[in-house]
Amino acid sequence: MNLIFYALSLIAIISTILTIIQKNVIYSLLYLIISFLSISGIFFCLGAFFAGALEVIIYAGAIIVLFVFVIMMLNINQENNIKKENFLKPIYWIGPSILSLILFISMTYVIFYLKDKTINKLLINSKIVGISLFGPYILLVELSSILLLSALVIVFHIGKNYENKSKFYN
């Protein structure tokens, strides 16, 4: 189990670094998905199954879809589009495929060979998390949602490609 934890940690670190240094936005999102999935695997290794499931559902699902919609709204110009020839070069697909293969092997090992592992901790379900979030932390949850919404509006406004920019500068 420790080997899987360290492998997933290494995948998370490598894919996060590649997310930051990647020039193309779509490739960066692919590395970010690998990073989120490996972090959820780390949660599963630690026995935090609810946190791992939330990581997959919220971050690897909803947040990435939000990022894709923001990229679509920004309408990136033609010089930054992914060319079909780039998919055939091994430099572009060998890194993500190795990281995804290691992630797949470690998750398969956890699912099929660690069935008899028991949890000796208190299991937290979604009702307890909801009561905690919308009880004493309601102000923090609402402030973070307003912050995320304002960040989305600002990114859309800054990245919008105006047809006639001269009418805004006169």
How would you explain this protein's 3D organization?
The protein is mostly helical and 170 residues long. The protein has 2 domains: 2-121, NADH-ubiquinone/plastoquinone oxidoreductase chain 6, subunit NuoJ (Four Helix Bundle (Hemerythrin (Met), subunit A)), CATH 1.20.120; 125-170. Helices cover 74% and strands 0% of the residues. The protein has 7 helices and no strands. It has helices spanning 2-21, 25-46, 49-74, 90-113, 126-133, 138-159, 166-169. The longest helix has 26 residues, at 49-74. The protein is flat and about 55 Å long.
Could you give a short description of this structure?
The chain is an all-alpha fold. It contains seven helices and no strands.
Give the low-confidence spans.
Answer: none
CA(first)-CA(last) distance = 64 Å
Q: Helix count?
A: 7
Question: In total, how many domains does the architecture comprise?
Answer: 2
Main sheet properties: none
Structural class: mainly alpha
- Strand percentage lies at under 5%
**Gross CATH architecture of the largest domain:** Up-down Bundle
**What is the average per-residue confidence, as pLDDT, rounded to a whole number?**
76
CATH topology of the largest domain: Four Helix Bundle (Hemerythrin (Met), subunit A)
Q: From the alpha-carbon coordinates, what is the Rg to the nearest angstrom?
A: 20 Å
